[in-house]
Amino acid sequence: MDRRETGSTTPESQEQAPRLLTGTGVSPGSGYGPAFLVVGDIPEPAAGSRHDGDAPAERGRAEQALDDVAADLESRGARAGGEAEEVLGAQAMMARDPGLAVEVGQLIDQGVAAPRAVFEAFGKYRDLLSAAGGYLGERVADLDDIRDRAIALLAGLPMSGVPTSAAVPFVLVAKDLAPADTALLSKDVVAAFVTEQGGPTSHTAILARSMGVPAVVGCAGATTIAQGAAVLVDGSSGRVRLSPDEDEVTAARNADEARRAVLSAVTGPGTTADGHAVPLLANIGGPRDLDAALAAGAEGVGLYRTEFLFLDRETAPTPEEQEAAYRAVFDAFPGGRVVVRTLDAGADKPLAFLPSPGEEPNPALGERGIRMFRRYPDIMAVQLGALARAAAGTAAKAEIMAPMVATVEEAAWFAEACRTAGLENAGIMIEVPSAAIRATDLIEEVDFFSIGTNDLTQYALAADRQVSEVAALQDPWHPAVLDLIGMAAFAATAAGKGCGVCGEAAADPILACVLVGMGVTSLSMSAPALPLVRAALARHTREQCRSAAVGARSATSPAGARAAARAELPELGSLAL
Amino acid sequence: MAERKVSVESEVGLHARPAATFVQTAAKAPFDVTVAKAGGQPVSAKSILSVLALDVRQGESIVISAEGEGADEVLDRLAEIAAAS
């Protein structure tokens, strides 16, 4: 019987998860499917648990489980390729370790049940590794992962690994997701993401937006959802409805289709309702992202993250390799702008050939971005040289910018380095509050600004992007962040220069209107976010955007800023925002 | 019983990639292969967990032992892997 409408408060129904959970919608659209829970913690099998006496059969089960785990790790590795393949391959070797198999077998022969035997056998190696510390100590997590996967198989518990194929796309529910969990996921498999932790710039949020899959993060109680329960997720409002009735699902589907139809109806360059042009650009990591950018109608590239060319390798890419990767992107946008960010490395994104000078207890405040670039002038000369050669023969407008600039002196140094290399358009990212506060001084030295809102928010609120406990502070809607953006945009406008935004804030269609209202001249985001931002801008005049900006900056909280901006943007409803 | 004594030259010691290559090579031998730190207890060279747990650092010496037909070839190959920087 369906007790949903009765408001029953019998003890039985109280034990069930509530019917409606709410979190932060971070990737718009609605998704419906059975819940797939990623269970991070496999409980320890009870000490003293015994098998039924058939030791050979129990040994067979244990061997099979370990072998299945190894095979699964290997096949994930083979599909992911590169560094992931090596890491997962090493884990598979551990699962197949003959020494481990002997220990497990001996325990089972003494009568210990297979899950407990696996747990204890791993325990011995776990202790050895964690006692050694350092690199070996870090392998303990790998070992625990293998152990938990094997125990889950043996005990019939849900696996922590996410399936990479499904007959019906599922709603992936987790406390939080690691990159390894999600490396192989696609839209065909995942209908929506729901995580208990995380904020708008968490790994899950960024991944969901880049996949074009709805997502709700920071959703309290998400992991109480029953495995396989039907879930309807609204990635705009942040509502997660459990066991919805058919009408609700149909209504959500219809609204989603209507929204998509509205989106596809608006095409072409970005502009406000009254014809003020706002170029809409794509954030890319390399030539492989170009197809998606072009398909979404990007007018150029607003952030080319060149570090992806440098990651996961032993030596720096050659000048020729770099030139080819840069040229491929320039050539994709003849007549358009391509903004390239120079290598953004540091303790948080370490490179084998650019070792950090020393231990950094606080990498976000350490030697990264332009600071690192200055320590390695050879790396910089090669990159700027390759960019200049690639730009010389192309019809795109190449613009080069440096990350993490904090002072006038750094801005001047970078602009000079670009000019020496033969690059005409040199800009800087506004990510450090000092650069925003003194934007009028910095703009004198460079040709443009591009605001990186993720880091700007992290530094303005002193909230580490990697620490989920402070995720609520990591919100670009904080009026303090809006003020810093406003200062940078004002300084650039006064100097007759451009000021773009290339952080996740530009991908929020409501915030995009506010940014334009503050004088931001272009918006760059991951490709799937472009249609909705384009549609939101096309429905509002520049004056309405200005009013939204004034309203938002008058507020005293992120929620207040959002509400004030909404009140000035009457057409959001037609986009189901 | 044949054996080789080599100094491990890889910067990461007998961990990570060198350890994986070492164990994979040893695992192909049809006979037992052991490895020990100089003066220490030997462990199976076919067990990645045991080899890792030895915690051999750069510059430390190890003794690799095996007995059987083709043992010399296997030991030469393993010594080469261990000594590679």
Describe the protein's architecture and organization.
Chain A: Residues 1-61 are annotated as: Disordered. Chain A: Residues 171-238 form the PEP-utilising enzyme mobile domain. Chain A: Pfam families: PEP-utilisers_N, PEP-utilizers, PEP-utilizers_C. Chain A: It catalyses: L-histidyl-[protein] + phosphoenolpyruvate = N(pros)-phospho-L-histidyl-[protein] + pyruvate. Chain A: Residues 7-16 have a biased composition (Polar residues). The complex is a heterodimer of chains A (577) and B (85). With 577 residues, chain A is α/β, with parallel strands linked by helices. Chain A folds into three domains: 17-37 and 169-259, Glucose Oxidase, domain 1, CATH 3.50.30.10; 55-155, Enzyme I, Chain A, domain 2 (Orthogonal Bundle); 266-575, Phosphoenolpyruvate-binding domains (TIM Barrel, Alpha-Beta Barrel). Chain A is 45% helix and 13% strand. Chain A has 22 helices and 16 strands. Chain A has helices at residues 11-15, 55-80, 82-95, 98-109, 114-132, 134-155, 179-182, 203-211, 246-265, 290-295, 319-332, 370-375, 377-392, 408-421, 433-437, 439-442, 453-460, 479-494, 509-517, 530-538, 542-554, 558-568; strands spanning 20-22, 24-27, 30-37, 170-174, 190-195, 215-217, 230-234, 239-242, 280-284, 301-305, 337-341, 397-402, 425-430, 448-451, 498-501, 522-525. In chain A, the strands form two sheets. In chain A, strands 1-8-7-3-4-5-6-2 form an eight-stranded mixed sheet. In chain A, α4 crosses α5 (114-132). Mean pLDDT of chain A is 87; it is low at 1-17. With 85 residues, chain B is of the alpha+beta class. Chain B has a single domain (2-83), classed as Histidine-containing Protein, Chain: A (2-Layer Sandwich), CATH 3.30.1340.10. Helix content of chain B is 38%, strand content 22%. Chain B has helices spanning 16-27, 48-54, 71-83, and strands at residues 2-7, 33-37, 43-44, 61-66. Chain B has a four-stranded antiparallel sheet, covered by helices on one side. The longest helix of chain B is centred in the last third of the chain and has 13 residues, at 71-83. Chain B is globular. The termini of chain B are far apart. The model of chain B has no long low-confidence stretch (mean pLDDT 91). The chains are: A alpha/beta (577), B alpha+beta (85).
